[in-house]
Design goal:
alpha/beta, ten-stranded mixed beta sheet, D-Maltodextrin-Binding Protein, domain 2, 12 helices, 2 domains
């Protein structure tokens, strides 16, 4: 081997080593970008499966702003309504499990799995719970001239004369059916596309009662256009302390509320889930947040990932039992 040949081989060897090192670095770069210790390296998105401006938005957007300040990255709220929350929820469940997509999940994850419209994913396996934030009870309200003076009388009226009295709601068909079943009564359900029109018709007396989440009816109750008969949940609502729960009447077993919390796709790295869980609890325990959300009827109730997971599993099973009891058929199958 000549001197020139040896030098050429040596140069090729060095070039090969340099190329391999460069290629290895290029291949390793994506892995480093996805490593939990590097998170967050870019903006996050928070999918809200409801239209902008509603009750859920009034919780989700302050959460996004709070999280942005805590992690130093933008958190973009993406409203994805449709199919009674299934469209947005499925988008969250099927996103890459890298910690950059969060889902603002709620009780509909359990209700839809039990009563439809059935989602194209299993929330119990496709989503990883991060932490609960709070809940909102439902309210049954009526026009001031309605003959029942309180909730117990309303239940007894609807029990004695099945189908005579009406209850309006916006896409709460199953919840109304469950309320009837758990109270052994029969209000005739009148479905609406939106809560505003259902409320307007209750005020005008075109329907006897209206069933909706607290923030939807609260302004009308406070101004005297509607009279609250009862609230769901295990305890009275802070903004309606004089209104009894269904359970207090002794005539009903209704205790359902609309809870909400944060989820990420399953298989999201555990360190990221734990960081998000800590920030979610910090949000729910912030004094300014508590005061702001309490003013619209949100009851703050933070929970751990494990607790939120048990809530989802427990309510899915409970709603399936109710659906079986009442031989429930989703709207599209009737």
């Amino acid at each position: 081997m000549t001197k020139h040949t040896g030098e050429a081989m040596h140069r090729r060897t060095l070039l090969d080593i340099a190329w391999c090192a460069s290629a290895a670095g290029a291949l390793a770069a994506p892995a480093r970008a996805q490593a939990p210790e590097a998170w967050p390296a870019r903006a996050l998105r928070l999918i809200v499966p409801y239209p902008a401006g509603g009750t859920n938005d009034q919780v989700a957007r302050p959460y996004a702003d709070f999280l942005r300040q805590r992690i130093g990255q933008a958190v973009v709220v993406e409203n994805r309504p449709g199919a009674q929350t299934n469209i947005g929820s499925e988008a969250g469940a099927r996103a890459a499990p890298d910690g950059y997509t969060l889902l603002f999940g709620q009780a509909s994850l359990a209700i839809n799995a039990a009563a439809g419209p059935f989602p194209g994913f299993d929330a119990l396996t496709a989503l990883a719970p991060v932490g609960g934030i709070g809940r909102i009870p439902y309210v049954l309200a009526t026009r001031p001239a309605f003959p029942a003076r309180d909730l117990r009388e309303a239940i007894l009226l609807a029990r004695r004369e099945p189908g005579r009295y009406t209850v309006a709601s916006a896409q709460l068909d199953f919840q109304v059916a469950a309320m009837n079943r758990r109270s052994n009564m029969e209000f005739e359900h009148v479905g609406y596309r939106g809560g505003a029109q259902a409320t307007t018709d209750a005020i005008a007396g075109r329907v006897d009662t209206v069933f909706a989440l607290t923030p939807v009816l609260l302004p009308h109750i406070q101004e005297g256009r509607l009279r609250a008969l009862g609230v769901t949940g295990p305890r009275r609502a802070a903004l309606l302390p004089g209104v009894p729960t269904f359970l207090e009447t002794g005539e009903s077993q209704v205790s359902a509320v609309n809870w909400f919390g944060i989820f990420v796709p399953a298989e999201t790295p555990r360190p990221i889930v734990e960081r998000l869980a800590a920030e979610t609890r910090a949000f729910a325990e912030d004094a300014g947040v508590v005061q702001r959300l309490a003013a619209i009827g949100v009851e703050i109730e933070p929970s751990t990932p494990e607790e939120l997971g048990r809530t989802l599993a427990g309510e899915t099973a409970a709603y399936r039992q109710i659906a079986q009891e009442i031989a429930w058929r989703p709207v599209g199958e009737r």
